[in-house]
Amino acid sequence: MMARQASQNGSRRDGPPGFPAPTARTVADTPLWHVRRRPFQPVRPEKTRKDERRNWGGGGRWYNNGTRPGGVAGHGQMGNVGSCQSEEPEWVPCMSKGTNQRLPSPFLPRGLAVAVAFSTYLSPPVQAQCPPSFSGAVEYPALPKPDLRATCMAIGDVSGDGRPDVVLGRRGESLQEISVFLGNADGTFAPVITQPSSYPPNDVALGDMNGDGILDLVAANILGVASVSLGNGDGTFAAPVSFSAGINFRVAVGDVNNDGQLDVAVARLGDIAVFLGNGDGTVGAMIVVPSGAIGASGITIGDINGDNKPDLARAGESSSQERGVASVMLGNGDGTFGEPHLYWSGSSTQFSSFPRSVAIRDLNGDGTPDLLTANAWSSDVSLLLGRGDGTFGETRNIGFDSTEFTIGFRPQAADLADLNGDGMPEVIVANEAGRFTVFSPRDALLGSPLFFPAPDGFTQGNSLGIADLNGDGRPDLVRSTDEGIAVLINDTSSFEIVQQPAGMTIMQGQDATFQVVANGTASSRWRRDGIPLSDGGRFSGTTTATLLITGALVEDAGVYDVEITAACQATLNSRPVVLGVLNLADNDADGTPDLFDLCPADSYKTNPSACGCGVADMDANSDGVPDCLTSDLCPNDPSKTNPGACGCDCGIGLGAGLLGSIAGLAGWRFMRRRGGLTQSTS
To answer: What is the pLDDT of residue 248?
Structure first.
């Protein structure tokens, strides 16, 4: 596990505006547990087809820049559970009613006390996720050739073995080629396969363009054409079929006219060119879509306003002002699009702040698509929350100009994925310096992110990929570099309570032991009624997995729980349990509790002036009431049916008399034994 900077999973702090800390009731102003939020609603860019079943990363479908499954540029969708509705976007997670609550502790009465039922208590979570972590970055170089550097990357199963592969576009002044890294089952890659390219690739995407179930390669380049190369199913591609597209820089594939066939959209200098697919690997005539933005930046396809008609989003520079923008064009469902709507992107007002990538993702878990851009020259990322109607709220820029932390130098790409499986996705940023930056969109204004460097000697790259490379259900990271690709395998661990402590009721003076068992190395802190305990006196093991109370007193009764902290700093709280302590003293040690002993100071019962003190406490009719007690008016008639004696027809006895007046003894029964009474839990 690599060294990293983190301020994760410790004590939670108030969030940024719109991300308030949840209100809660506490035990002695200390929370007993956190209840996990519901998972995030996925953003479905558009419809899917039955034959498009390949997916990477815990059951999610992976898209190329937010487009249909079948091709990926390392983008995915996470989570699955409903949405919250609001007129304005909110920086809060969508939570079901009643969750994220902390319950108050029942303070047991001191003295005569018994356990209480826990049917009204929510069970605290038994599992927590550690902050994202990755194994050491591994490099996979392409074939070394002078003047060649990687310019683009896509991830998908191009060999038909069910495992994600990486396709890398490389170009130089006189050479260009496509390098394919076939994935192995363990997250490693086979030696690179290289084939020449007819055109210098500037961007690539993967998708099934002819409906044969094999991924094809779609490429954009700066020589005025785009191309489709049909896949052979073994990691190689046929010769490209090109079509005139003007000078184009970025490409995305998706079904923009809802006919079940993949289409192609390329970002050009001043607009977007859309080519409707024919279903056989060829495309129709070009449709020009004004974008209001210029520059060699990203493009993506997705349903932004929820009308099931794919929309376009592009990153670039405003065509009217020298400033970075994200441009949105709502789809009409027939391959045409409405007028562009522009939103500022990046903290700088200069030309150089224009974004390098744009992604349609649900950043705050409200089920509404949002926008995420990586702004290279202003060294920040922009978060734009969607309103659900195709418009967006105020841009939030996180990064270089923020006082909280630095995203990193010149981010080239950004995307969203749930890296540690806690239902709260993280933003992943690939920086020009070769490292990944990871942070939560909710915690962006709270503290430092996590940094994961690329291998030593690898230089800058401009592509980011997210996919489950080794089939363990956790998203892994890939980025292009000038020399090839760098891979970080996700090794984030979970933390779990496997045995909860158990409640108990004991007599005063007896010992009580509570134990909790968690997987892995962890530290513990036991609490009573929400207050941390310390070793000393009757208490020991307060910071271990086993708490011992030696010779418990009445005042030790209460609600006990333990906070467990894993080595990764993730925390869990155990189920709260009750310790009941009964103060049933027997001063004369005759086996009869003083409360029911008419001679509490005389174990030999020799006081002739007191009933029962001159004889054993006999119970001739075995009704559980000593004969000598005045409450048993029918000592020879256990059925109490003699109408000639007062009380013989009304069932008066110890349970209705003395026991009924002693609060807190519900749940106890008393059994006769020679020489007195003893108790047994019922």
So the answer is: 83
CB 475 within 8 A of CB 427: no
In a domain, 592, yes or no: no
Spatial distance between the Cα atoms of 442 and 396, rounded to a whole number of angstroms:
12
Give 501's Cβ-side CA count (13 Å radius): 29
The CATH number covering residue 347 comes to 2.130.10.130
- Average the pLDDT over each of 132-136, 388-392, 460-464, 647-651 and give the range with the smallest value: 647-651
Question: Tokens standing for 83?
Answer: 């949405």
Spatial CB neighbours of 516, under 8 Å, sequence gap ≥ 6? 497, 499, 500, 501, 524, 545, 562, 564, 574
Q: With respect to residue 197, please indicate whether it lies within any of the assigned structural domains.
A: no
Q: In this structure, what token pair is assigned to residue 620?
A: 């001739």
**How many secondary structure helices (H) and strands (E) does the chain include?**
0, 45
> What CA–CA distances, in Å, run from 495 to 11, 130, 515, 521?
16, 7, 17, 9
d(CA 480, CA 539) in angstroms, rounded, equals: 57
Q: How far is CA 175 from CA 170, 184, 205, 217, 472, in A?
A: 8, 29, 20, 19, 38
Is residue 448 located within the same domain as residue 545? no
Phi, psi values for residue 659, rounded to 5°: -65, -35
Average pLDDT over residues 206-232: 94
Overall domain count for the chain: 2
Residues 421 and 504 in one domain: no
8 A C-beta contact, residue 510 and residue 504: no
**β-bridge mates for residue 443, sequence order:** none
- Say whether both 304 and 412 belong to one domain: yes
Backbone φ/ψ region at 181: left (φ over 0), alpha (ψ -120 to 50), beta: beta
Q: Tell me the residue length of the chain.
A: 682
Query: What is the CATH number for 521?
Result: 2.60.40.10
Residue 566 has pLDDT above 90, yes or no: no
Token pair recorded at residue 111: 């003295």
Per the CB < 8 A criterion, the answer to whether 579 and 506 are in contact is yes
Give the least confident one: 393-402, 454-463, 611-620. Answer: 611-620
Cα 399 to chain center, whole Å?
23
Q: Which domain holds residue 401?
A: 291-453
Dump pLDDT digits (tens) for 665-676.
333 343 333 333
Within a 10 A sphere around the Cβ of 384, how many other Cβ atoms?
23
Residue 121: is its pLDDT beyond 80? no
Specify the range with the lowest mean pLDDT, choosing from 296-310, 364-378, 550-564.
364-378
Give the CA distances from residue 442 to residues 344, 505, 611, in Å, rounded to whole numbers and listed in that order: 21, 44, 74
Close Cβ partners of 364 (under 8 Å, ≥ 6 residues apart): 18, 19, 89, 90, 91, 92, 93, 370, 385, 441, 442
The reported pTM is 0.65
Tokens standing for 180?
A: 């394919």
Name the strand (E) or helix (H) holding 526: strand 522-528
Cβ(580)–Cβ(667) under 8 Å? no
Of 547, 582, 617, the one marking the end of a domain is: 582
On the question of pLDDT at 64 being above 50, the answer is no
- The mean pLDDT of 4-10, rounded to a whole number, is 35
8 A C-beta contact, residue 471 and residue 489: no
Contact call for residues 676 and 617 (beta carbons, < 8 A) = yes
Q: What is the model's pLDDT at position 475? A: 93
